Request: fold
Amino acid sequence: MKKSDKPINPSRRNFLKGVSSGIVGAYAITPNLKIENLPKEISDSIEGKVKLTLKVNGEKISKSVKPNTTLADFIREELKLTGTKIVCNQGECGSCTVLMNGEAVYSCHLLALDADGSEIITVEGLLNNDELNSVQKSFIDNDGLQCGFCTPGQIISAYALLKNNPNPTDEEIKNGMSGNVCRCGAYPKIFDSVKDAINKKI
Reply:
């Protein structure tokens, strides 16, 4: 049998190798070709993006993201939900707190791809149409904020606390809110806000 008569190896690896070479080759010989003019699947592949599917505030979202994109960046930059704040960006202050499958998490400390298939709720997702959630109302009624930068994370943590424990003790409130830093030091008012929200329908 001559070499040319041998069957081509149809493995997936060889197929992808051929396709990738073709894409890179085409891009190399046409330097004026702009990535934004390429089909989305190809431009995403060149940029190393990976498909992400999740539910955010009840809406199913499917987008391609770079593997190093944090959940906080994805929420703010891709979805334009800017209620989630990025402050320390090291998973220490809690301003970026969101709910992931009902649990409060630091979204700046989590890759977006780690949330694939999850259900995320941001502070915007607590609204019922245009009406504030009772936890949000309690923060307003009790002046549970000063500059307001940490407030979305505080509210999400309070919501998670009360959702899992509708009647917490004072100590449980302090423990439940301990991962959220308020640089203004409005802790007494934040505590009063959470106490006020106890036993209200959330």
Observations:
- The longest strand covers residues 50-56.
- The mean pLDDT is 89.
- Strands lie at 50-56, 59-65, 97-100, 103-106, 119-121.
- The longest helix spans residues 12-29.
